[in-house]
């Protein structure tokens, strides 16, 4: 078996990431992955995830493929929506309050928790800079999250995001209002929007 061409195919069809369990479906064992890693024919980027030597790891895809219970939010969502031009120093995710993300995710990300019934609200997918789709909150949900967590964010990040949202021709104020009511932040949101609109 030509392991490298098999692994190259797996990487190409999975956004550049070779997962241990997918490799196993192709008859490539963990021991073989370990051996190829030792020979520097593949590189380990996280537990159970490898990339080919010439590939750049897609951090966001790597994080999201470790759990189906995380959605990119806050600063990372702003960045993916093009509302912030700064690549976040630390990626931000939201998880349901009854779910504890893995240690590897917690080491790489700032984690926010939300009630289960609000977790999926506004969930969509956006492309990472590498072109892979990852779960992210839509723009209106992201703005609500920013307002809700304004004390944990820098004032500059918070105000810039609101100003850019207000100037965005694609904004949906009805959807924003619906989300704000469900998240119980309408009053504070309207105070900021009155100044900006």
Short description:
With 197 residues, this protein is α+β, with helices and mostly antiparallel strands. It has helices at residues 3-13, 20-25, 30-38, 59-64, 74-81, 103-108, 116-119, 139-148, 155-167, 173-182, 186-196; strands spanning 18-19, 43-46, 49-51, 71-72, 91-96, 109-114, 123-127, 133-137.
Offer a few descriptive terms.
single chain; about 200 residues; alpha+beta; three-stranded antiparallel β-sheet; three-stranded mixed β-sheet; 11 helices; 8 strands; about 15% strand
The value of Rg in angstroms is 19 Å
Mean pLDDT: 91
**What's the overall geometry?**
elongated
The succession of helices and strands, N to C, reads HEHHEEHEHEHEHEEHHHH
Low-confidence stretches: none
Largest sheet: 3 strands, antiparallel
Estimated helix fraction: 40-55%
Structural class, judged by helices and strands? alpha+beta
Strand portion = 15-25%
What is the end-to-end distance? 63 Å
- Count of extended strands: 8
Question: What features would you describe in this structure?
Answer:
This protein is about 50% helix and about 15% strand. It has about 200 residues and is α+β, with helices and mostly antiparallel strands. The protein has a three-stranded antiparallel beta sheet with strand order 1-3-2. A three-stranded mixed beta sheet has the order 4-5-6. A two-stranded antiparallel ribbon has the order 7-8. A hairpin with a 5-residue loop joins strand 7 (about 125) and strand 8 (about 135). The longest helix is centred in the C-terminal third of the chain and has 13 residues, at about 155-165.
């Amino acid at each position: 078996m030509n392991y490298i061409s098999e692994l190259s195919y797996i990487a190409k069809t999975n956004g550049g990431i070779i997962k241990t369990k997918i490799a196993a479906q192709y008859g490539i064992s963990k021991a073989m992955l370990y051996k190829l890693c030792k020979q520097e024919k593949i590189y380990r980027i996280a537990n159970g995830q490898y990339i080919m030597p010439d590939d750049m790891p897609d951090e966001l895809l790597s994080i999201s493929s470790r759990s189906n219970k995380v959605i990119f939010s806050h600063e990372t969502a702003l960045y993916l929506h093009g509302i912030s031009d700064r690549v976040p120093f630390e990626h931000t995710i939201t998880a349901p309050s009854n779910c504890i993300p893995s240690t590897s995710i917690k080491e790489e990300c700032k984690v926010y928790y939300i009630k289960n019934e609000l977790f999926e609200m506004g969930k969509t997918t956006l492309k990472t800079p590498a072109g892979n789709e990852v779960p992210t909150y839509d723009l209106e949900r992201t703005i609500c999250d920013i307002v809700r967590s304004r004390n944990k964010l820098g004032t500059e990040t918070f105000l810039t995001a609101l100003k850019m949202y207000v100037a965005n021709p694609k904004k949906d104020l009805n959807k924003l209002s619906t989300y704000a009511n469900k998240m119980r932040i309408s009053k504070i949101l309207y105070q900021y929007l009155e100044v900006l609109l």
